[in-house]
Write a structure and sequence with these properties.
Jelly Rolls; IPNS-like_FE2OG_OXY; Fe2OG dioxygenase domain-containing protein; alpha+beta; metal ion binding; metal-binding; 5-stranded mixed sheet; DIOX_N; 8 helices; 8-stranded mixed sheet
Length: about 350
């Protein structure tokens, strides 16, 4: 199979990993259709109508906040509608995203484009199961106002700024609800940790993958932020999450955005809110796009706990957390995450 020039060398990386693997298999035999796990349950995430947060009726506001917090505790994931982001903004951003990924591979890897944030596969993978069959731009929002970041993609700048600004306000409004639900949350101080200069946006593309069903679009992981807002493909499924110790497939909802809790909120809430493992599967025939907004603090920010006296995690900075993740991935090929920061018993 010859990949077109817009695609990164994922097949080449996969072949090399297979050849290096101790349980080497014939790559030719792996060129078969991708199948989903037999009997995998398809679920609809809890759906929250955010109109309730703006209601003049106090009971409706309380009920909406309760739904958000309950889903964050029981699922770690939920969907939102009536979130205040105009449909036209979402459409424009998706159009620009598709245009960006349709560019030749050499153009996407050009120096300076979106702060050199282009990446593909998994450069630390040591076996096929650690490879992510995807390409992405993981963009620091501190740079999106810089004209020099866009190269030939001039129309992307204005759209990305509008999209990121809307997502920032939405993410912080949800975070305020989660903070307000727990005793000890210092709202003002907490909000200062996350602003437009500390957050990230990831533009994802999952090319068609006609080889092994064991290949992930994105390997199983938890998010290392406070929370994530995902604008996923309206029709092509692929998101799966761990629920009750088993994988379930998330049914796409074209009218909703997906929100999930990250590691930092789990630590801050003392495990009240759950950062749940999730992954993306590949599709043999069609590509899939998604955009993730990550609500992050500065690297110097300390991640405490709303119940410091009874915290099950030691205090750490976001920078320390990220560094530990990088060390673990480099050493073992996978993220360990919060268990590294449990208080010694």
């Amino acid at each position: 199979m010859i990949e077109c020039n817009q695609n990164p060398p994922l097949l080449q990386d996969y072949t090399q990993l297979v050849n290096q693997s101790s349980d080497r298999v014939d790559v030719i035999k792996q060129h078969r259709p991708v199948y989903h796990e037999p009997g995998l349950e398809v679920c609809e995430l809890p759906l929250v109508d955010l109109c309730g947060l703006l209601s003049e009726n106090e009971d409706e506001r309380v009920s909406c906040a309760s739904e958000i917090c309950k889903a964050s505790s029981e699922w770690g994931f939920f969907q939102i509608v009536n979130h205040g982001i105009e449909l036209e903004v979402l459409r424009k951003m998706r159009k620009e995203q598709v245009k960006l990924f349709e560019a030749p591979f050499e153009m996407k890897t050009a120096p300076g484009l979106l702060d050199n944030s282009y990446r593909w596969g998994n450069r630390t993978a040591t076996c096929p199961k650690q490879l992510s069959w995807c390409e992405a731009f993981h963009v620091p929002l501190s740079r999106i106002s810089d004209d020099t970041c866009y190269g030939e993609f001039n129309s992307l700048r204005e759209v990305m700024q509008e999209y990121a600004g809307a997502m920032q306000e939405l993410a912080k409004s949800i975070a305020r609800v989660l903070v307000g639900n727990l005793a000890g949350g210092e709202r003002g101080v907490w909000e200062d940790k996350c602003n437009a200069s500390t957050c990230f946006m990831r533009l994802n593309r999952y090319p068609p993958c006609p080889i092994s069903p064991e290949v992930f679009g994105l390997v199983p992981h938890t998010d290392s932020d406070f929370l994530t807002i995902l604008h996923q493909d309206e029709h092509v499924g692929g998101l799966q999450l761990m629920k009750d110790s088993k994988w379930v497939a998330v049914k796409p909802n074209p009218d909703a955005l997906v929100v999930n809790i990250g590691d930092l909120f789990q630590a801050w809430s003392n495990d009240v809110y759950k950062s749940v493992e999730h992954k993306v599967t590949v599709n043999r025939e069609v590509e899939r796009h998604s955009i993730a907004y990550f609500l992050c603090p500065s690297y110097e920010s300390f991640i405490g706990c709303c119940e410091e006296e009874n915290s099950i995690y030691r205090r750490f900075t976001f920078g320390e957390y990220r560094s530990q993740i990088q060390e673990d991935v480099k050493a073992s090929g996978h993220k360990v995450g919060l268990p590294r920061f449990l208080v010694s018993t």
